[in-house]
Amino acid sequence: MNSLTHCIYASLSASNFREQELPQLLTRARSANALHGISGMLLYIRGTFFQVLEGEAADVDAMYQKILRDPRHARVRQIVREPIAARNFAEWTMAFETIDPVDAAGMIGDTDFFSDSSCIERIDAGRAKKLLAASERAAMKQELARHRHHLEELVGERTVALETANETAAAAHRASLERLEAERDAKIQAGKLEAMGTLAAGIGHDFNNILASILSYAEMTDDELAEGSEAKNNLAQVINGCFRARALVSRMLDFARFRSGDPVQVDIVLQVREALVLLRASLRPSIELVFHCSIPEACSTIMADPTQVMQLVMNLCINAAHAMDNHGVIVIRIDLAAAIEDAPADQRGGICITVADSGTGMTPEVMQRIFDPFFTTKAPGEGSGLGLSVVYGAVKGLGGDIKVRSSTALGSAGTQFQVFLPTPLAIACG
Amino acid sequence: MPHILVIEDDVNFREPLVKTLTSDGHTVTTAGDGMAALSLLKTIRPDLIITDILMPNMDGIETIMELSRLGNAVPVIAMSGGRRTITPEFNLDSAATMGVKVTLAKPFTRAELRRAIQQSLE
Question: Model ipTM?
Fold first, then answer.
């Protein structure tokens, strides 16, 4: 403890003191003390503040001078210095009273300075506590304000981060929604086709049976009617109607038969051979069917609906036969896709079924549209225009691809369809 | 003239078919399904069998299989309104792979029927 305590009568008049300035005042006093290596406290007595300093006389003196020069202390009314006995606070107070006899109001500051707490009580405990509370409240307010500001900054930063995350999540959500919708649409479409197929097959069968009896009765009745009679002419229309209905059902069934069943392990070579047996029976003898197979036995397994695969091949061959006007050669090949020069990159692991005809080929305009549903070059009633579009759909459905090459140029090799299908043993075969 | 066994469950079609065949001079025996046909075949010896595919009790494919198991030498014409559809078990292609040389897709004309019969009996 230093030997001397000095008091700086650095008072602010009671009239222009605002209680909210107290925390600032306290801070300023403390930091000034720390700067000069002296300890002290701020007192508020009878409407006047006192900076009480404890230290060597020289240090305290330097402090006085500094305070006097500092413009921030413009409101300091008067400074006196006077040694005070630390433990004689009552006397010390009295000394001040002689300088500025105002009503004792209270005190604030570092209470440790006064070891005799009764002194504090004596001055004005109520007022002091009030001021202390006010100062603490103000300090807390400031702290709160600082925290609030910091919090606002944090909240701001977090908000930005959250907004970014939210946007990313929203975009991902939209993308997955779109994907799900597309999948759902595809499933609905597949379901519709499935239902249509079942319906077409069922109705087609029954309708054909009804047509069969109508046609039979009509033909029998026809025998009874006189040549050139009105009734015979009318009946000819009935028979003609039967033929038209038959063609319509046939188109419906063409479409329906491409419904695919559950994929199972299918020996593609076997299926193609079976298709060729059926084709041989239904195609004109003027069409030659040539079959080549270059794939090892281990690679002949694919996952598909066997009927669909068979019909796929038959459809391509029947199409080829029509393209050649029922005269010529159809070459059917099964090769490893890896052996095909320009096989699509993603199909190289599978197999390739090639159906090539020796026909007149197609113009680029026709070629562009061959896979379009209902596109046909055949006369009305001869082709549904569904054949190649369902072949296309079936191949795509099996995870494969289809390529077509054709030319109308003289001496060309007609049209060639290449159907690429994946095999489960792709790695071993590719 | 040849004796023909017609196996057809649909009476609406069986009737005009029988009339047509009869008017062409054939002797016709009918059965409503494969089961009835097989029991008839114990007593009659037709020259030709014309069978529907989709029938109750014993369908056309089963009938054809049973006939071939019994060592049947009588030619068979398979006919169906389902053509290549319905299911693989019930189509004319299946019949064809089982040795049926001539198939008829319903509805067919009298001319198509006559041609089929002629082809079968050749």
Answer: 0.84
